[in-house]
Inverse folding.
């Protein structure tokens, strides 16, 4: 089949599935799947940059997504003035002192000749600096977290428009990727995977336990929105009159309008990132990255700085994941650190890339939409299927109850089945790399 025709048919199939959801279930559900599909496609593009372009096996995706969510809080939430007055300055001084200790230790490690004296000096700087850091930092944290812990208990943000949090989320994830890349990109692929997973868990541990930063497991609710609130639309006489003329209920129409607003914003970001990724892929830089991916030794022999290029692509892919994380937190309206799980924000994103087509940006986008649709819809579809299968069984049958109660597990079964089928019949993905 002609590749253009095939790709068009695949995307048309995804569109038909979403439209069928709107017709058979509700348009609210269909738009929610669309919005999360757009965000998932952006995450898949970020992973595809790292794996499809450069062969970097990053399984710490959830850490960069979580940093994007943190950016939404730090940028858009109003500052907690009482917390800043109580201990904000001390917290900042403590963080600065901690950074100074690390810089001083690194300087000593580089400037002093290799000897026992150098080891002793570095240890003294690190141990002494740690205690000095805690002496400054801990009282400030305690003072901040003591300010209305049930309602705030954290420093808050800068009170800026939420849309600014999206690029800031990318910058925050890129900064973390630079630090991680400097330490881990020299490792072999399997060790790199372990390192990125461990660092992602460290990021989540900080988000869950440092209440002064983003309330920890208490969650931050009520994030500002880039679209109108439903209640404001329902109280707008002009909006009510317009939707009444279309024969729609104002409550339903306001919900659909808000979700459509998110869809337009997310689609604009996806199109921009996809266009930039395509330009990069087809540029000399993109060809160089694929040459490094295919044979690092040959590329290095041709004068290419492999480690620097790996660091570049690692930062770019992580930044894209950070942008998607900020967008997802904006859509949810809250930051919930406990919701960041490897299954959802690492394994599922990798399935999207593999199923769609590693090394192909359009394939990553297709995988994002398709896998997210099945992730959401498999459970209701599985419930209907089990009800049909168990119809001949008696109502009190233990087997019938067991099968109906096991419907939730069909989600994981289906993901594994889809992955196996694609790897068997289309090993390079539904839209393979050209």
């Amino acid at each position: 089949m002609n590749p253009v025709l095939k790709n068009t048919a695949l995307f048309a199939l995804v569109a038909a599935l979403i439209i069928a959801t709107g017709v058979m279930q509700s348009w609210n559900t269909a738009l929610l799947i669309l919005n999360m599909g757009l965000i998932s496609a952006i995450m898949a593009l970020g992973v595809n940059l790292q794996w499809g372009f450069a062969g970097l096996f990053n399984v710490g995706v959830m850490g960069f997504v979580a940093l994007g969510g943190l950016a939404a809080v730090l940028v858009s939430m109003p500052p907690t003035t009482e917390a800043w007055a109580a201990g904000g300055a001390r917290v900042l001084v403590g963080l600065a002192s901690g950074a100074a200790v690390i810089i001083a230790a690194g300087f000593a490690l580089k400037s002093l000749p290799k000897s026992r004296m150098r080891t002793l000096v570095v240890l003294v700087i690190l141990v002494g600096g740690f205690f000095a850091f805690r002496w400054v930092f801990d009282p400030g944290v305690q003072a901040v977290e003591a300010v209305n812990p049930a309602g705030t208990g954290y420093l808050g943000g800068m009170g800026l428009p939420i849309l600014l949090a999206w690029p800031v989320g990318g910058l925050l994830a890129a900064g973390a990727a630079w630090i991680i890349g400097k330490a881990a990109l020299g490792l072999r692929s399997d060790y790199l995977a372990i390192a990125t997973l461990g660092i992602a868990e460290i990021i989540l541990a900080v988000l869950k336990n440092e209440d002064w930063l983003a309330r920890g497991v208490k969650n931050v609710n009520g994030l500002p929105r880039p679209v109108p609130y439903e209640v404001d639309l329902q109280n707008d006489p002009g909006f009510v009159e317009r939707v009444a003329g279309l024969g729609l209920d104002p409550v339903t129409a306001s919900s659909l309008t808000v979700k459509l607003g998110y869809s337009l914003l997310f689609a604009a970001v996806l199109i921009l990132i996809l266009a930039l990724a395509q330009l990069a892929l087809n540029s000399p830089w993109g060809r160089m990255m694929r040459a490094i991916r295919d044979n690092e030794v040959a590329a290095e022999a041709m004068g290419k700085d492999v480690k620097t290029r790996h660091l570049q692509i690692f930062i770019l892919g992580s930044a894209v994941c950070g942008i998607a994380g900020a967008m997802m937190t904006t859509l949810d309206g809250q930051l919930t650190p406990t919701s960041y799980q490897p299954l959802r924000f690492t394994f599922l994103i990798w399935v999207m890339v593999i199923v769609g087509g590693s090394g192909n940006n359009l394939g990553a986008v297709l995988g994002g939409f398709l896998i997210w649709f099945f992730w959401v819809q498999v459970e209701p579809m599985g419930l209907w299927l089990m009800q049909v299968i168990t119809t001949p069984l008696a109502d009190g049958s233990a087997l019938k109850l067991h099968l109906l109660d096991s419907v939730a597990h069909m989600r994981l079964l289906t993901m594994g089945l889809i992955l196996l089928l694609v790897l068997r019949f289309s090993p390079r993905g539904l839209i393979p790399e050209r």
Notes: The mean pLDDT is 90.
